[in-house]
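pls design
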């Protein structure tokens, strides 16, 4: 069963599209959006375990130099239409 999370990201000023492109290349990142508001980018990630989600966030996403901060929300329950 897949585990999912939304990662809310603040980037350096003007770096939204660069971060968007880098996130799009990570296989576990299933959706990426550039947004307006307190966050600049939102990414949905899916993996086979919570440990793998943690690894992706720490070792892949947070190491993108243009990312200032992240806030992660693990998906507990959901539905797809």
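designed seq:
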């Amino acid at each position: 069963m897949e585990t999912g999370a939304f990662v809310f990201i603040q980037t350096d000023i003007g770096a939204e599209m660069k971060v968007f492109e880098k996130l799009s290349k990570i296989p576990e990142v299933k959706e990426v959006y550039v947004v307006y508001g307190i966050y600049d980018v939102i990414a949905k990630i899916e993996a086979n375990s919570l440990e793998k989600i943690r690894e992706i966030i720490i070792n892949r996403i947070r190491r993108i130099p243009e990312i200032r901060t992240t806030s992660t929300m693990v998906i507990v329950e959901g539905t797809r239409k």
